[in-house]
Amino acid sequence: MRGTVYKSTGSWYTIKAADGEFYECRIKGKFRIKGIKSTNPIAVGDIVEFAIEEGGDETVGIISAIEERRNYVIRKSVNLSKQTHIIASNLDQVFLLVTLNNPKTYPIFIDRFLATAEAYDIPVTLLFNKIDTYNLEELAEVKYLAELYRNIGYTCIGISAKTGNNVDKVKELMVDKISMFAGNSGAGKSTLINTIEPTLDIKTARISEQHLQGQHTTTFAEMYDLGFGGSIIDTPGIKGFGVVDMDKQEIGDYFPEFFALKSECKFNNCIHLDEPHCAVKEALDQEKVSWSRYKSYVQIVTGEEENYRTDLFGEKK
Ligand SMILES: Nc1nc2c(ncn2[C@@H]2O[C@H](COP(=O)(O)OP(=O)(O)OP(=O)(O)O)[C@@H](O)[C@H]2O)c(=O)[nH]1
Ligand SMILES: [Mg+2]
Ligand SMILES: [Zn+2]
Question: Which of 64, 126, 195, 299 has the fewest Cβ atoms within 10 angstroms?
Answer without folding.
Answer: 64
